[in-house]
Amino acid sequence: MPHDHHDHLSPSGHPYRPDNDTVLTYWQQMEIAIRELLIEKQIVTAAQIAGQIADMDARSPADGAAVVARAWTDPAFLERLRADGSAATREMGFDIGPMKLIAVENTETLHNVVVCTLCSCYPRNLLGLPPDWYKSRAYRSRTVREPRSVLAEFGVTLPDTVEVRVHDSTADMRYVVIPARPAGTEGLDEAALANLVTRDSMIGTGLARSLRP
């Protein structure tokens, strides 16, 4: 790799920088090589790549919370969301890319929780970056084996009458949980309802916030 030549510019026009405190992995080297080749061949520009990264960094759980709030207040939208999560979220201007998004709804008798047992597949286009614990081996392995214990560690203790259903994400299929709407929120508009929706509640490891008494 050419990164030892700090006095030269890369094809993108930026000087090569020394690596951080760890050696680049094979896949990191491949990403750099392909990215620089695409720029050198003028297939994309450095500005376009930077723009895409900025767009990804700007995404946050607030986008997903807006979708949940719409589902809570619009029964027709809820049905469309359950039927085709990808299409329904695009109605609100959220482009979740080519992946299939499946929305699962919590009820009085069913609680859904999402995991990715193979790696860390996550609806980033809708929820932003996944939390570190979602990518941990402990969460990925234990959630499918003992979901109630894992939920209890997150502070979610469910009665035996509530079924816990675990959904395993894949590279081309992601899940988002529609948490149960808190009681006493009938008079709130979508913006106020969205403030009650947490990131963890859309993964299933948390509940929506209740209104303060």
What does this molecule look like?
This protein is α/β, with parallel strands linked by helices. Helix content is 43%, strand content 11%. The strands form 2 sheets. It has a two-stranded parallel ribbon. Strands 2-3 form a two-stranded parallel sheet. The protein has 2 domains: 2-57, no CATH class; 59-203, Nitrile hydratase alpha /Thiocyanate hydrolase gamma (Nitrile Hydratase, Chain A), CATH 3.90.330.10. Mean pLDDT is 89; it is low at 1-9. It has helices at residues 26-40, 46-58, 61-73, 75-83, 85-91, 124-127, 132-135, 137-145, 147-153, 190-194, 199-203; strands at 100-105, 110-115, 163-168, 173-178.
Query: What's the helix count?
Result: 11
**Cα separation of the termini:** 61 Å
Order of neighbouring strands in the sheet with most strands: 1-4
Number of domains: 2
- Please give the share of residues in helix: 40-55%
What is the residue-averaged pLDDT? 89
State the CATH topology of the largest domain. Answer: Nitrile Hydratase, Chain A
> What's the total count of β strands?
4
CATH class of the largest domain reads Alpha Beta
Stretches where pLDDT is under 50 for at least 5 consecutive residues are 1-9
Give the SSE order as H and E letters. Answer: HHHHHEEHHHHEEHH
Which structural class best describes the helix and strand composition?
Answer: alpha/beta
- At the fourth level of CATH, the homologous superfamily of the largest domain is Nitrile hydratase alpha /Thiocyanate hydrolase gamma
Major sheet attributes: 2 strands, parallel
- The 3D shape can be described as globular
CATH architecture title of the largest domain: Alpha-Beta Complex
